[in-house]
Amino acid sequence: MNESQREAVRSNAKYLRSVRPVDPGEIHEYVAGEPHPAAVRQVLRESAVTLGLVERDDGTFVPVEDGPVEVAFDGVEAFPAEYGDTLEELLVAEYGPEWPAGESGAAIRERIRAVKEAYLHGSPVEYDYETALAYAVYHLPDYYATVQYVLAELAADGLLGRDLRVLDVGAGVGGPALGLAEFVPGDALVDYHAVEPSATAEVFEGLLGDTGRNVHATVHRSRAEEFDPGVVPEREGADRPAGFDLVLFSNVLSELEDPAAVIRRYADALGPSGTVVAIAPADRETATGLRRVERAVADDGPCTVYAPTARLWPGARPTDECWSFDVRPDIEVPAFQRALADHAGEGADGTDERPGEFVNVDVQYAYSLLRTDGKRRYDVALDASNVARFADSETHVTNRVDCYAVKLSHDLSEGGNPLFRVGDGSQSVAHFAVLTEESMLNEDLRTAEYGDLLALGNVLVLWNDDEGAYNLVVDGETVVDRVVR
Fold it and tell me: 55, 81, 335, 445: least surrounded by Cβ within 10 Å?
């Protein structure tokens, strides 16, 4: 189809979209030469983002609806088999059908071990294609799951629209992209742009064919520090606000020389109601590193923390070391991880390989949701004459107080009294809520979700000298209520 025919297809679609569903079988009759309806459909698919159209099951195209997505999300149980099959096809193409065994399997396992070792010591990793494949085997499933839990937070608050423009900075092998594509409903239009300079993008591009027909992905082979978000074109006709709805940094901030500066620059590319989503692994170094970056861009501007580490007191900022992360149920072991683990033996360096080294199904992550419109999940107005600030806990030791706190951990007790990290955005040292006597009046402390805001009444403040932290003792005299969003 030549360019004049393509333009005729687009012009007819622009007119018909406000009248009735755009049918390729109808439009082809209006175009000189009457190109085949399949060719017309392909032009419509390529132009869907600029025209604001989604393709329906019957093959027609309609304007994407306004408003937030409606998603019934019950968690992630497994990495989809179709994505796993595609990854295995890439592995077979590179190594042959016996890729998990013999020298090829040993090489893949060695690369996984090397990447994990480099990560543990904060060393940079150079990604050639084989290293990228090994990385995908190990990390693709958990990154796929993690992003969906974070997106579910935004969707629950009505902050994820059907017309979604996404910039994924440091997209890696595509776990977040696949998770996003799986999470959004079929009637959503996703204009997805990935920024990824390394060979991991080649694996990512190999997986893109499995995403839905209304997910339109573009990969930009550029470094995060150098990419200009302004080169991504806006929609024709400016019928939606300029800028991105989501700017995603998934497991990449720790690899940047100045992550706060990068976030500040990309925050300028947000639309008026957009969100920066930053995700990091749950280990202490990267999770606390994420909080340091969060504080640099939020407490000093230009962003506001939407969740989960809420700032509940005007003008206050936290300065504690906040090792805070969410934990979700493990996913099933993907077939490709099991195959690689089943062939574990003696490593290239002569050490014994443990099968568990090559299975990664934990879903544990730190995250931060940042905005530039000042919106916060809990927009509360607290009065120090009525409730206590964590910044003033030293003056309340051995006293009972009322306070508000965000739940920032799952149970940390390892079998003792349930113990949870909490914060109110003013703390300079760690605070933990200790449940010593559960009752119907305080059970919300145990049952609340990570990131929930709690009102604690008559809680006893104690100093824990061993841990260098404050304990908020929740006993039979304490009332704990979850604050509704």
Answer: 81
